[in-house]
């Protein structure tokens, strides 16, 4: 029975330590040194150094930048585009020199071609065409333009007028996204604080059990001395002494395992707090005399769930998710509506033809309006809108489901907190009885009225009562912080001023 009890103690120590180390993974911190710290100090260090908290802080900044980016869509945008092109050949309007006939005023009602006439007074025909007396000569070279090197560019200004409501929706989305990042930051802070509390009280628990294990070894050592004296006097057998020796050896082995579990738990707590794992944190609550008395009131049985909902950061995140999906459906609707924008530009090129063809830069201003009207996309835009509406419905259902689960979570947390207090009160009573039982057994053993088995049974009961009392005290603290977490009353903002 004694061996079984210590084996349980060993398993609790090692399993708890390993679980805490897993929770504390990936934390960093300042150079290590021995220090005495309180639970509040551990929380502050963890919130300040936790990488997930830093990530959430950066996400808040990122959401703020995206919000400013979305607001910029209201304002006119100015852009510049330019380029250069090399052409192999020049451009020519004519393929050869041109001779154009000239018209003269006929003195009456218009102009007539001045044609060459024969002796009969009729126009001379060549190849079926009349021959003009005079022609205008247009050489090919005069109508050939150098476009080997072409430079061009434009400065444009675009002012959105109506984008189907997309810009307004995007501004609301980024606003909600920033609030969502803040809610996730708060939720991460609650998780970090709860993890710190679990690791902190794990160390306190193992420290108390370490002291308990040492006391148990001392009890067995005293019993060993007494039985040895009785063997020497011939009132006890060698078998009695060997039985005590076996139990004493087992107690020493289990004490060593508890010490190892305590060391691992300290390492895990240091890592959660952002300190090197070799930092030895001496906790203020390791000393039983330094711990607060368990005089806290019994948790209530009924809570105003609307107030709980309003305080829960994770529920606020879901509510913001609903708002974001509502705006996303408006963005999808905008793809089916006209888009109107005003456009102004100054374009230039070299060569230019603003005032004849010249191989130099020349440009001009342009102002206009642009409208885009979707007509037919085979239902693509409409199905996109319907998908966005479905996403909103999904988020609403998730929100309702979360509220139902939170209500159950609060009820269970309050029940566990009440039961932990009742258990602690019971273990206090059992502890007093176990102390008294051990005292009577030791007296009876000294007077020869009890055997070593009776004494070891009393010692085992004393060990069990003390161990259960330690577990009950730690459970009260963990249930208390968990209840504050599910009720949304945890004071996590108190530690934000230390956050990096």
Explain how this protein is built.
The protein contains nine helices and 14 strands. The protein is α+β, with helices and mostly antiparallel strands. The protein has a single domain (2-79, 164-338, 377-498), classed as Outer membrane efflux proteins (OEP) (Up-down Bundle), CATH 1.20.1600.10. Residues 1-34 have low confidence and may be disordered.
Helix and strand topology:
Elements: H1 2-23, E1 35-37, H2 39-49, H3 51-71, E2 77-86, E3 91-92, E4 98-101, E5 103-105, E6 111-113, E7 125-126, E8 129-130, E9 135-138, E10 144-145, E11 149-162, H4 166-233, H5 238-272, E12 281-283, H6 305-311, H7 313-334, E13 339-350, E14 362-372, H8 380-446, H9 452-487
Parallel strand pairs: 1-12
Antiparallel strand pairs: 2-11, 3-10, 4-9, 5-6, 7-8, 11-13, 13-14
Summarize the structure.
The strands form six sheets. The chain has a four-stranded antiparallel β-sheet with strand order 2-11-13-14, with no helix packed on it. A two-stranded parallel ribbon has the order 1-12. It has a two-stranded antiparallel sheet with strand order 3-10. The chain contains nine helices and 14 strands.
Query: Which residues form runs of ≥5 with pLDDT under 50?
Result: 1-34
> What separation lies between the terminal Cα atoms?
52 Å
Fraction of helical residues: 55-70%
What would you call the structural class? alpha+beta
- What value does the Rg take, in angstroms? 45 Å
Strand order of the largest sheet: 2-11-13-14
**Total strand segments:** 14
How many domains make up the coordinates? 1
The CATH class turns out to be Mainly Alpha
CATH architecture: Up-down Bundle
> What is the helix/strand order?
HEHHEEEEEEEEEEHHEHHEEHH
């Amino acid at each position: 029975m004694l061996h079984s009890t210590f084996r349980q103690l060993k398993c609790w120590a090692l399993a708890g330590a390993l679980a805490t180390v897993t929770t504390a993974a990936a934390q960093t911190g300042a150079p290590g040194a021995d220090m005495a710290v309180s639970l509040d100090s551990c929380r502050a260090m963890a919130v300040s150094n936790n990488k997930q908290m830093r990530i959430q802080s950066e996400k808040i900044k990122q959401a703020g930048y995206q919000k400013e980016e979305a607001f910029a869509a209201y304002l006119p945008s100015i852009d510049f585009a330019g380029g250069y092109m090399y052409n192999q050949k020049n451009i020519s309007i004519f393929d050869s020199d041109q001779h154009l006939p000239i018209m003269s005023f006929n003195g009456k009602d218009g102009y007539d071609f001045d044609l060459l006439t024969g002796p009969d007074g009729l126009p001379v025909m060549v190849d079926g065409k009349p021959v003009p007396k005079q022609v205008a000569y247009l050489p090919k070279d005069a109508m050939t333009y150098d476009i080997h090197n072409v430079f061009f560019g434009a400065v444009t200004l675009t002012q959105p007028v109506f984008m189907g409501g997309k810009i307004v929706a995007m501004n609301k989305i980024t606003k909600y996204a920033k609030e969502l990042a803040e809610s996730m930051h708060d939720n991460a802070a609650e998780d970090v604080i709860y993890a710190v509390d679990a690791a902190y009280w794990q160390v306190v628990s193992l420290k108390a059990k370490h002291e308990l294990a040492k006391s148990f070894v001392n009890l067995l050592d005293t019993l060993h001395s007494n039985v040895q004296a009785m063997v020497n006097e011939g009132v006890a057998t060698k078998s009695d002494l060997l039985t005590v020796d076996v139990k004493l050896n087992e107690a020493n082995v289990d004490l060593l395992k508890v010490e190892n579990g305590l060391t691992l738990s300290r390492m895990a707590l240091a890592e959660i707090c952002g300190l090197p794992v070799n930092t030895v944190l001496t906790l203020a609550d390791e000393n039983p005399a330094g711990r607060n008395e368990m005089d806290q009131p019994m948790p209530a049985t009924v809570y105003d769930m609307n107030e709980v909902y309003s305080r829960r950061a994770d529920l606020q995140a879901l509510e913001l998710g609903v708002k974001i999906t509502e705006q996303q459906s408006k963005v999808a609707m905008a793809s089916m509506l006209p888009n109107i924008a005003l456009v102004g530009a100054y374009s230039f090129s070299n060569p230019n033809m603003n005032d004849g063809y010249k191989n130099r830069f020349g440009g001009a201003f342009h102002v206009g309006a642009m409208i885009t009207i979707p007509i037919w996309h085979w239902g693509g835009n409409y199905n996109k809108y319907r998908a966005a509406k479905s996403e909103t419905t999904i988020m609403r259902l998730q929100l309702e489901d979360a509220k139902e689960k939170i209500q159950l979570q609060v009820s269970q947390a309050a029940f566990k907190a009440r039961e932990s207090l009742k258990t602690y009160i019971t273990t206090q009573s059992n502890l007093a009885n176990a102390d008294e039982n051990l005292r009577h057994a030791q007296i009876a053993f000294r007077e020869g009225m009890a055997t070593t088995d009776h004494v070891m049974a009393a010692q085992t009961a004393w060990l069990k009562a003390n161990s259960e009392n330690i577990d009950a005290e730690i459970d009260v603290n963990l249930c208390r912080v968990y209840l504050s977490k599910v009720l949304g009353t945890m004071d996590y903002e108190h530690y934000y001023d230390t956050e990096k």
